[in-house]
Automatic annotation (TrEMBL):
Residues 20-64 form the HTH arsR-type domain. InterPro entries: ArsR-like_HTH, HTH_ArsR_DNA-bd_dom, WH-like_DNA-bd_sf, WH_DNA-bd_sf. It holds the Pfam family HTH_5. GO terms for molecular function: DNA-binding transcription factor activity. This is HTH arsR-type domain-containing protein. Gene3D superfamilies: Winged helix-like DNA-binding domain superfamily/Winged helix DNA-binding domain. It comes from the Archaea.
Length: 96
């Protein structure tokens, strides 16, 4: 994992208030890609909260959206999949 990605992961998940929520979302969609509504239901979170965190992660290349409509599915990005072992280790070490 390069330093820029490591710093991004630390900032998005460890160094910010919404990090634990983003980590829960990422773990969930890595297990099973799904749309915003289903993520909100599975994690018992507000739809807008989930959408906000997904869009933030998408803007930073952590997740990708497949489709453009209401039912668009979110998946971890290729770079996340490629570096998953190290990303998961960082998240787990920080209690996420």
């Amino acid at each position: 994992m390069d330093r820029d990605l490591r710093n991004l992961i630390l900032w998005l998940f460890v160094g910010s208030k919404g990090g634990p929520t983003r980590a829960r979302i990422l773990f969930l969609i890595r297990e099973s890609p799904m749309n915003v509504h289903r993520i909100a239901k599975e994690l018992e979170l507000n739809y807008r909260t989930v959408k906000y965190h997904l869009e933030l992660m998408r803007e930073h290349g952590i997740v990708e959206r497949v489709g453009n409509d209401y039912g668009a599915i979110y998946v971890p990005s290729e770079v996340v999949e490629k570096n998953w072992g190290e990303i998961e280790s960082i998240l787990r070490r920080n209690g996420l």
